[in-house]
Design brief:
It is built from four helices and 19 strands. The chain is α+β, with helices and mostly antiparallel strands and about 325 residues long. It starts with a helix and ends with a strand.
Amino acid sequence: MRRLAWVAAVLAAAACGEVDEHRHLDGGTGDTNGSADAAPMGPAMLTVTPMAHEFGPVAINGTSAVFKVTFKNTGGDPAMGCTAPTKGGLHPGEFTLTNDTCGTAELAGGASCTVDVVAKPTIDGIRTMTISRTCTAGGTATTTSNGYVVNRPMFIFSTSAETNGNLGGLAGADAKCAAAAATGSVSAPKALQWKALISQKTGTQVDAKDRIVWTGPLYDISGTVVTFDPSTWPWVGPASGGSNIRKTESGGVSGSYTWTGTAVDGTATTADCNGWVDGTQAHVGTAGETGNFPAANWINSFNNGCSDTFFALYCVSQ
């Protein structure tokens, strides 16, 4: 009864404008909407994001798209005595920092600044860099060692083993690529992860071009260029030379055909052996001809009954 009387008194006082609007009926205080973010507290602490970035394939003496890096003081005290962002790692000269809003300025608690990064590779092959900034009060924030990367090479091979259209789905196709790579005399020493270059239309559509993170350039298993920019479909082959994608995990020559379920633009076709789980003549799958790259039929040549077993897989490193 006394609780009810107290509530009635509070409500009456509120009607007369005598109650603090932030005071709860239980006698506590707090934010009326409960959504306010707490201000940073404690000593200055400098952070950097993102820790790593793939610029993808960039032509020699070309310039990548701009990528923004953020330094932030996650503490409450100001970050003071700061240096400007600096480049480090193996190939700092292959990258440029522009539009630096950090400089040597301090950062108040919770404040951030940015610097733009572009890659400008001057020679072929992987080029890497590290970015860091140091504040006397706030410490040093550094990206992953050599985590900023341009022109990371990728590899492709055709499996020596052949199979019908029951691959066990996309996951099963990936497993076949991993197994082949693990035993290949050329692929195994590379110690890379591998995925099948294959699409699926049945159920949820999955396009081959989107299953793989394309960094490029792309080489065959022996190191001959296949295409400089595998992220651009259809692929453009080298200026000279024949097919480079027919080599197997051990450097031999694969059979003539591969299951792909894929159009020349890297998207799924409707012929996918019922999602690559049916190895009968009830379904068909799209196949490519390994010896015809860079002609379009390297990936999309014909549809074939899924019971036939003379088809390999294209496997691409990650």
